[in-house]
Amino acid sequence: MVGSLPLAIASGVDFPYLLHKMVIEGNVGQVTEYRIGVKCRLLIPNDLLWLVSSLRYSPKKKEELLEFFKFRNIYSGVILKNDPLPILRAMRAAFEQVFTGRVTISR
Length: 107
Fold this sequence. Notes:
By secondary structure, the chain is mainly α.
């Protein structure tokens, strides 16, 4: 599960912006329009670690691969074009987990 902030932003409710606007302008209007059914995933490290673990231990490897590559209408909680540092840190954490043998299924 991905934290609720990236999911809210991907759905159209930008809480950091609303907080900024509230500090600058005071009260802000209620947000009543947002997209329903939006999904977020934490590709690195969680989903990649899940894939490694699933391919290692699951008897249903083909089904696990098909599930992993379902990216349509799914937003990332970490991968951002204008801010690469979070993804770099997440990649480092994933590599540390894989190479120290602490890979667990956490999906």
